[in-house]
Amino acid sequence: MTRDELALLFDPLQHADVECDGFSRVVYSILTERGHRPIIKAGELTIRGANVRPHLWVEVYGWTIDYQARRWLGHEPWVPHGVFRAPETEAIYEGAAIEAKVIPEPVRRLMMMSYADFVSESQNRLIVTEVPG
Question: What percent of the chain has pLDDT over 90?
């Protein structure tokens, strides 16, 4: 897959209120369901003397997928974000592959909802349009 194809899949999810572990598992699940073989890695991310550990990210076809580094390291231009080739950045990703299972789509949808969306969805389900009986 190209960078653009991956970004098209995952850029729309980048503002979800999940941390690196949840986001990486969602990315892994989507790619696996589409027949790809992504790898989730867990370890440490270091850039310009700052680091975050533990940190999770996804690797596939030589691309690194990490939409959560800026959550911890700031929104500076040198902090990688999105889909990129890690060696082309200042970031040092050190970690090992971990086992993962595909998260079912309904669970992923719930994970990616904001709290406000979740409350709204829950309230909509409580509205009864027919009275049984």
Answer: 79
